[in-house]
Design goal:
The complex is a heterodimer of chains A (222) and B (206). With 222 residues, chain A is mostly helical. Chain A is built from 10 helices and no strands. In chain A, 84% of the residues lie in helices and 0% in strands. The longest helix of chain A is centred in the C-terminal third of the chain and has 29 residues. The chains are: A mainly alpha (222), B alpha/beta (206). At the A-B interface, helix 1, helix 4 and helix 5 of A face loops of B.
């Protein structure tokens, strides 16, 4: 069982690295969207500090939306996903592994770079760490929500708009509480409440997400 | 090896109010070969997908060792190797990596080499799957089945796109699989080129 998950994990990492242009596109989108504001607003630091929270989360959401269109699609086209559903191992765990390796490839670089981007918004000190922590807690939820949307729409040829319609309402709570966490930390208020909420959302999506996604895949490849 | 059998009872499949097939029943035991024949578009592939559990039939059941295949206790998927029209090769991986990353590998390195030799794949092992020809991709996919050590092989037109020596080898391998007590389900629209079948379902005349 663990062996099989390791095979799926390593295979997905390798495939994602070979599709590096895809990975890079979403990272570039994240950087571009989030850097537009400091570049256009100049050195208006109060304004920038006010918008940094929502901007970081929306950029992460957009990057995620772009990247996640390709989590299951190539595997459905070449038929390897139907082989995974026929294997004697639980599909939920296989899907969970796929999502985790996808998160590593698409969201981890984004976390690493977010500290630098935050500093261009005049965010300083501990708040930079809070920005990174917020993204660390919110990206797993975003990835699981988008994986569900991707699984539901995998049989559709051009799923972009439909995927966005599914993902955006579901991820609004994460956007709101994530922005609040960053805003609170900048204005010196205790950030634990929104971070606890994000943590709760993360456990919720990580535990139920793969189960629902696996059933959605079974239906989609029928 | 314990004795296995596969049984289907009155399978019926509708696709958006259009009847694909109905009243398909068969019982397959070890060492037997079921051939599903019929013209294009008569539902051969759909029937295979129903048998292996990818498509849920409108009516009827598939039973493995007396248990319905969707029963939690059913060991069906431990014994099943399926190859459909799609070869399940990941184009970003080389032929070798595609073989290495398959989930079930049981047979020895010796037999791997022998299969690769006969299929003339050794030269192409380091090529990306997308660079291979259709026949070569099919051969890599079939190698994976031949190495899988499963009891029941469900192969959708296994001989399509394969060159004569490859076909010959595949037929002897399938024969050997049946003699080992394996089970085989294949489809074909050309009857005479496949090996002798014990059972046949013809979808042409419903």
């Amino acid at each position: 069982m663990i062996d099989v998950l390791r095979i799926v994990f390593l295979r997905d990492l390798k495939v994602s690295l070979r599709r590096w242009t895809d990975v890079l596109t979403s990272l570039i989108l994240f950087v571009l969207v989030s850097l537009v504001f400091p570049l256009t607003l100049g050195n208006d630091s109060t304004m920038l500090l006010k918008i940094v929270g929502p901007v970081m989360l929306v950029s992460a959401l957009l990057a995620n939306l772009l990247a996640m269109q390709n989590i299951f699609r190539p595997d459905v086209i070449n038929g390897s996903l139907e082989q995974l559903t026929l294997s004697s191992y639980p599909l939920t765990w296989i899907i969970c592994t796929k999502i985790f390796s996808f998160w590593l490839i698409t969201s981890l670089p984004l976390l690493l770079i977010s500290g630098f981007i935050a500093s261009s918004y005049y965010v300083t000190g501990n708040s930079i760490l809070i920005v990174i922590l917020t993204l660390l807690l919110s990206t797993p939820s975003l990835v699981h929500i988008s994986a569900l949307a991707a699984a539901l729409t995998v049989a559709i040829r051009y799923p972009g708009a439909l995927m966005a319609l599914i993902i955006i309402p579901l991820s609004l709570p994460i956007m709101i509480f994530g922005s609040k966490a960053i805003e609170f930390s900048i204005s010196g208020i205790d950030v634990s409440a929104p971070l606890y909420f994000l943590l709760g959302m993360m456990f919720f999506t990580c535990s139920l997400g793969p189960i629902v996604t696996a059933s959605a895949i079974r239906i989609s490849i029928d | 090896m314990t004795h296995h059998n596969l049984q289907s009872n009155f399978l019926e499949l509708y696709r958006s109010d259009h009847l694909i097939f109905s009243n398909i029943s068969f019982e397959l035991s070890e060492g037997q070969h079921l051939l599903i024949s019929g013209a294009n578009g008569t539902g051969k592939t759909s029937l295979l997908r129903v048998i292996c559990g990818l498509t849920i039939p409108t009516d009827g059941t598939v039973m493995w060792d007396e248990l319905a295949t969707n029963n939690v206790d059913c060991t069906y998927h431990h014994h099943l190797a399926y190859l459909g029209h799609k070869n399940a090769l990941i184009s970003e991986l080389t032929a070798k990596e595609n073989l290495e990353y398959s989930l079930d590998r049981h047979r020895s390195v010796m037999s791997t080499n022998r299969i690769l030799e006969v299929f003339d794949l050794n030269k192409y092992l380091d090529q990306y799957a997308e660079k291979l020809s259709n026949g070569q991709m099919r051969k890599v996919a079939l190698t994976r089945i031949l190495l899988s050590d499963k009891t029941l092989w469900i192969l959708d037109e296994p001989l399509a796109n394969i060159d004569p020596p490859g076909k010959q080898f595949l037929l002897t391998e399938m024969q050997a699989h049946l003699e080992r007590g394996g089970m085989l389900i294949t489809t074909s629209n050309v009857n005479n080129e496949t090996l002798k079948s014990n059972l046949e379902i013809n979808l042409d005349n419903p």
